[in-house]
Amino acid sequence: MLTVAFQTLRGRWVSFLGTVVALVLGVAQVAAMGLLLMTALDLPDRPVERFAGAPAVVLPTDPAWDPAHHDLGVRSLPEARGVSRELLRKVAATGPTVVDRAFYAQLAGGPSDQVGHPWPMARFGGYTLRDGRAPASDREVVVASGRARTGDRVTVLTAAGVGTYTVSGTVPPVGWEDAVFFTDAEAARLAPRIEALVAFGALDEVRAAVGGDAEVLTGRDRHRADAGEDRDREALDNTVTLVPVMAAVAGTTAVFVVASTFAFAVVQRRREVALLRAVGATPRQVRRMVRGEALLVGGFASGVGTVVGLFGAQVLADMLVGLGVAPPWFRVSVRLAPLGGAVLVGVLVALCGVSVAARRAGRVRPVEALRDAAVDDAGVTRGRAVLGGVGVVGAVGLVVWVGVGDPAVALSPSAYALALLVPVLTAAVLAPLAVGPLTRLLMRPFTGPVAMLVRESALTSRRRTAATAAPVLLTVGLTFSLLTATDAIGAAGESGLRGQVRSEYALVPDGTPGISPQVAAKVSRIDGVQVVAPVLTTVYVRDEDRLEVLDGVLMDGAALKRTMDLDVVDGSLDALDDNSVVVADQWGMKVGSTFKALLPDGEEAALRIAATYDAPHGGDVAYLPQRFAATAAYARDGLARRAYISPAPGADRITAIREAVAGTGARLVTRDELLASESAYTHHLTEVRQRSVTVIVVLFCFIAILNTLLMATADRRRDLAVLRLAGATPRQAVRFFVAESLLVATIGVTLALLATALNLTGLWGALHQLYGTAPITLPYAVTTAVAAVSTLLAVAGTVLPVGAALRAGPVEPAGIRE
């Protein structure tokens, strides 16, 4: 039957053209997304940078630690502690050893990613003095030429405060870091934590001395100790987050559209299949022929689609770079796995798309073949009914889950974007059931022969009507749901943040990655000014055989009450002392209980739960007493991301604050300005994620609309010939088909609105629980524009083949031949 399938494809290739186009685009989308995802998950293969001249590097690591599973900047416990004094002593006993420290050190007015190192480390990165000399005193530094000249006095911002140094020399700049070099003693004062060791001893002796406390890196592996690997991971973080969401939503949409289009193509050819049954073909032979056609079409289209996806992947990558999601150096690399997977998906989708229709046609008895082929039944297949029922249960269940059970799901772009798909796809599956009631309802105001013909045509061909309405439904439904969710979550998050912060003013970084606690302490010495500078740290909790990593913030109880309006569930913030902690209620810890916390500097502390608070919108951090301030420099960079200020009345205090922070890398802002800046970045990322997905889905669905309508209308040459032979003028025939395409588009938009209403019900419930308010603003303008374009494409997909058929004449044999 494969030969028969090939012959039917040769003879009826025009009928399969729309299916091939849909499958090519679907496979191209899957291939492009797969290439993007695989490329984003692999860091660039860069050469060794800072340790290129080091024979061996001793780096504390945790073999089980995967940075991709943790927030940016979070270190494993061995990394956070760094090289211990005991390990330094053991390695130093094997031969000469150089201590490396890496810490925040920014020249005033310089870039925020500048880093400090002890001068003895310079030679391993290829640094050589261009002029001057090495730093001889703790008030001297060496910088890259172009940042300052030898002999200049420069201000350096560090986590330990603001200091003034003399430039003793300069080195040529390098492309992988912008370093400031200090003496060994000054670097140790600024950063007590030892990052790594460069060991010159015999490699076997070094490994024996290190044991299991750290890892000894040589050769290409030394790059793992470079900061460049973390920078690359950070640069790709948003890409890695966004691409799976895009792939899941766009891929699901593509597979659904392609499967529907292929199944529709088989339904269009029921007359041929019925004739085969009438002349003696067995059901098995019919199924084999149709599946053979699907295999041939699927293989050809998948191959072409893979090539298109190979080139389209970089186009998508360039789009992400333009949106600021991916770094400028992001380039797609060719991987066989996603390309092979795309081919396999294309073939499987083609086979699955025809399986139901082929099985259904194979069950037709020869005596009923011609009658079954002449009339499109109005029913729904058992498989579609089961799938639709599962979809309804799943859609309602997801709405209840998001709106009542776990509202925080709405804040997860990947999970919630997939949840939004379910009601829309369910509506598309059950569209044949809705065609009858909607057609009668929508056509009730219209009278006349054209309206009657349009109504009866849609009612007697419900599967065709549903198939052509499905792309419109997907386009409008996904656009409406995704954009509304994006805007609503952003507005609600800003409202929730506004209700949580009490302070009237705040210090925010001004061209720096954070604010030094010493700068905050300087402001607090102003009479009548209270300052709270929460510094982010990390808490490690042993859970059976693994460590749980928790975010922590250093604040005392009085400051916490003064600056933050936490929704306390149990206990009291007044109970926060030097041996207690305030945690999120979601952690499941009871007030009064204790747990052992491992701190980044190696200290182990038993902390009592003083209070628990509700943190529905992601700010589930532990509030720790200030006595653990020393751990911050081990866990992160030791900087405060903001400082809350509560001044006594008086304009002179505001002026004094501005003067105190001048030149320190901090800037005074009002509460409203702080909240706007805090929410803007998060809202921007959410907006980019959702809108990127929407753009890709909409473009694909636009093509699917045009493709499906072209297929449906081109197959109706008999209907057009009958109209013309019955006396209809060309204008009347065109009016009939245009009116029918408008009805189809309206049915799709109506179903899209119903599915979106279900999605918005769950979203409203989630936002109401999370923030106590649900300011949902509907994107009428964008959705109306998408619906209008969808309708125009539907009309164009109808008018083009009708116009071509009219030029052939109403009684031409080609006009009525199947």
From TrEMBL:
What residue stretches are annotated with the ABC3 transporter permease C-terminal domain? 245-363, 693-808
Pfam families membership: FtsX
GO cellular component terms, A-Z: plasma membrane
The membrane-spanning stretches of this chain are 12-38, 242-267, 294-316, 336-358, 385-404, 416-435, 465-485, 693-712, 733-758, 778-800
Question: What subcellular compartments does it reside in?
Answer: Cell membrane
Per UniProt, the keywords (alphabetical) are: Cell membrane, Membrane, Transmembrane, Transmembrane helix
For this entry, the protein name equals ABC3 transporter permease C-terminal domain-containing protein
Assign the protein's first listed, main location to one coarse class.
membrane
A GO molecular-function descriptor: transmembrane transporter activity
Q: Which InterPro entries does the UniProt record give?
A: ABC3_permease_C (IPR003838), Macrolide_Exporter_MacB (IPR050250)
Q: Which family does it belong to?
A: Belongs to the ABC-4 integral membrane protein family.
Q: What topology does the record note for this protein and the membrane?
A: Multi-pass membrane protein
Q: Which organism is it from?
A: Streptomyces smaragdinus
